[in-house]
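Async update (no meeting this week)

Hi team, since we skipped the sync, here's where things stand on the single-chain job. The sequence we agreed to prioritize is pasted below, unchanged from the tracker. I ran it this morning and attached the output directly underneath so nobody has to dig for it. Comments welcome in thread, and please keep replies under the output.
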Amino acid sequence: MGLDRRLVLAGGLSAIASATWAQHEHHAGQFERLNQPGRIDLPDLHRQHAVVDSPAPPAAAKGQWRSRAPLPIPRTEMAWATEYRGRVHLVGGYAEQRVDRPYHHAYDPTADKWETLPELPRGANHVGVATLGDRLYAFGGFTEQNRTPHDGVFAFDGARWHSLRRLPEACGAIACVTLGDAIHLVGGAIGSDNRRSVDWHLVYNPREDRYSRRQAMPLGRDHTGAVAVNGVIHLIGGRVDTFHTNSNLHHSYDPKTDEWSFRAPIPTARSGHGTVWLRNRIFCMGGEGTNRVYGQNEAYDPLTDRWESYAPMLTPRHGMGAVVIGDAIYVSGGGPQMGGGVKSAINEEFRIG
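Output:
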């Protein structure tokens, strides 16, 4: 990959700094096709799909990305990840020419190492995950390629998985957010040939192992970004049935009033992105659109209701895991081009400074 390589940016072609391409050289052999075994380098299609320009004003400190230890095997469409006992946990997804893998890997930032852990009882992609107390929870997911969900729910106690009460209806790509002593399950997608987004909002109570319903989200979406901030849930972006109709909507939910409110839309409409809370900002990075894979790293300040842009991802991806541990964001795996045709083992860290 020569240093004259270019990425497609919103509004035209723009040269990418040589440091970025040196980073890509470092990632050689960290990709694999879904329909063909064997490691490959960053596919050429990535350069046609990758977008890194943000319409949001730049932050005063852009921050920096760096490479960390790659995943043991290339994976994508886990859709999300969660922090559990100080490590990044990835469950399910596409890997090794299947879309219903039960794989479970954990990354320790201090040691910069991955560990293979007990597998999910049922393999799937787009599994909703959250941590509450001393357990990691996994909700639903798709058994085919981004469709045909199942209703299984499981909890990991650090040694093994336990089966819990099933979802009221099979669903995948659910936004899962821990708030207080419960887990909110918002949106997602149902169906197979008739796959469609839903506006459901369930609350799972682990102590009683039961679900209750709350006010539905304003517009049914899946592949959204979700995070809890000061007792309020923020739901950002996502797709309405397909990534061809991505949304830039940003809503917040107050459990005290059981009401949703509009917030400033995310500058780059996207789905399958990472969403985390770091240094009083909600960061959204990565994601997917029509012939696009996003690298924008945009952050929202709840106090001012405004967005700003930070350093874009070294390798734009979607369907990856994004987790905050300490003072850093870790973004692991994901697809480097539109769709699920290529998986990556890339693991990159972002720090503001």
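Quick observations from my side:
Residues 83 and 262 are 28 Å apart (CA to CA).
The chain has one domain: 6-351.
Reply here if anything looks off.
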